[in-house]
């Protein structure tokens, strides 16, 4: 089969003929890949920023069709008797599936809590530990816990199956759109969800001062100047980094704020002008049901954004900051923009060994930090709902407002990695079967 493979030490992707992966463990599935994504985090390995020497198949974003299942699949694996995830009983050859970017067993303590991105037996696709999906076929370990079965509406969120004509719904969503479920859309939804769920944001959400905001049945504490005003409850949020994940986070955040009926002010920040323009086009393309009438959304460079936040908040700073870059200048900006008792949610993949502030800096501002990888499998139902709802943004390829720039033959992988690394193309998908 054809596969894109990384070769050490850096900047060397080759499309090569390699053996088709086989079932190695009874929990495995083999998936025929219909589309695979190229992602910003692929560049960490590409650039040789990690101490890796093993040649391996790249890519952690893919969608495809199940072609082989290990011996642990079948009706005898029903949850009622096996206690295992339902998919071991229901997954069939021919099913259309999308995988999160990491394997997760779906049955350990960590997975059951929903923290699937850190399953102890997990692995990242497209790493030395596990070959990736930028290939014609990919082996999926623990597939019964990992895969999301797009052919089985019973496994989707109840909100979708209750309100939609499921067949029409699936017919109307392209594979290129569904591929966004593998990483960038769940990661965006995760960032927005994590921020809005933070205890320090609850006074704005509930209209009750902290700590009574944490307990709806407790008496409201009046500190002497009355209860929270509408102005007090206005959320001011900064987003740093407007690459594809940042755009997904913005769409998810806007949707969540509209669902909650909350007024907002959002400043979306990137140093790169073409990314800012993309964000503006996406915001224009979002229907009014996805951004409401009750908010202000501006796209700016960092210095301008600092002035905007100072003006909006009387120099207090942002309630929350989403950091979607993964370097120390972005973290420094996040710290500067956050208010005392502010929350920073960081989903950028961090390469630097240190963070750019001290414990004293954090203490002095009562900053809360959330770092880390999205538990993508756990986020799938929410991400899928947003994908269906926001086809005005996520449904297109190659337009001014689409996240996906183009779909190309996988044979162009080497060239596309180079162009993507140099910022000459946006998000690219590989078609492993386009032998034009
Ligand atoms: Zn990715
Ligand atoms: Zn697990």
Automatic annotation (TrEMBL):
Xref: Gene3D superfamilies: Medium-chain alcohol dehydrogenases, catalytic domain, NAD(P)-binding Rossmann-like Domain
Names of required cofactors: Zn(2+)
Stored InterPro entries: ADH-like_C (IPR013149), ADH-like_N (IPR013154), GroES-like_sf (IPR011032), NAD(P)-bd_dom_sf (IPR036291)
GO molecular function: metal ion binding
Superkingdom: Eukaryota
Domain Alcohol dehydrogenase-like C-terminal span(s) in chain numbering: 258-385
Start and end residues of each Alcohol dehydrogenase-like N-terminal domain: 26-143
Residue ranges of the TM segments: none
Pfam families referenced in this protein's UniProt entry, alphabetically: ADH_N (PF08240), ADH_zinc_N (PF00107)
Keywords annotated in UniProt: Metal-binding, Zinc
Protein name: Alcohol dehydrogenase
